[in-house]
Amino acid sequence: MKKLLAMAHVSSMERLALYASTIAFQWFAVTVVAWRGWAHGFTASQLGLIVRDRNRILVASIVGAATIAALQWLNLRRVGKIPVASRGPLQAIAERILPQSTVELPPYLALAITAGLCEEFIYRGFAMAALAHVGLQAWAVVLISSVLFGLAHSYQGRGGVVMTLIIGTILGSSRIAYDCLVPAMFWHSAVDVVAGTAGPRYLTRKLRADPDKNI
Length: 215
Description:
This protein is an all-alpha fold. The protein has one domain (2-210). 74% of the residues lie in helices and 0% in strands. The protein has nine helices and no strands. α5 packs antiparallel against α8 and α7 (157-178) packs antiparallel against α8 (182-203). The longest helix is centred in the middle third of the chain and has 29 residues, at 105-133. The protein starts with a helix and ends in a 6-residue tail after the last helix.
């Protein structure tokens, strides 16, 4: 990611390769984590994989995803009105990492859903279960797992790490509130899906339309 962000231009093939390799890596990571979790005796319930109240979880998943998607959309539209030079790392990510064509969009959406599933299992499933297993209080479990989640997104810069930490705290709190990973998976996927659909629209459209102004 850091290598791509340092490049002046990223081709469509390079973006597609990034999407494919990240999807493969995340599922590989989940496989290893699930194996180690099983080896250490963690149950599906401890990992947040049991849905006890289906109606409550379904409503929370859909309403929460719609709300967080709307907030993400509004934030990207707000950032799109800021001068390009003041947008920071978010602009570099939009130009180099987010999908720029209809060919790139489906693989990106597959990546967004993969991230929602895999990262939630790793950070809000296994990591929180492991931290709780050693006797930490719920607030410490949420905080530590969120810090780890934020650091994993360090390529987004300091502001991105802080924002990801905050989002991780919200997702971690939902994991405890609903005793289930499903709402967090929906919410996480919604954030990334909107980033890939609204991000290029608000952050790169003007650049493509009038590139001379950004030389």
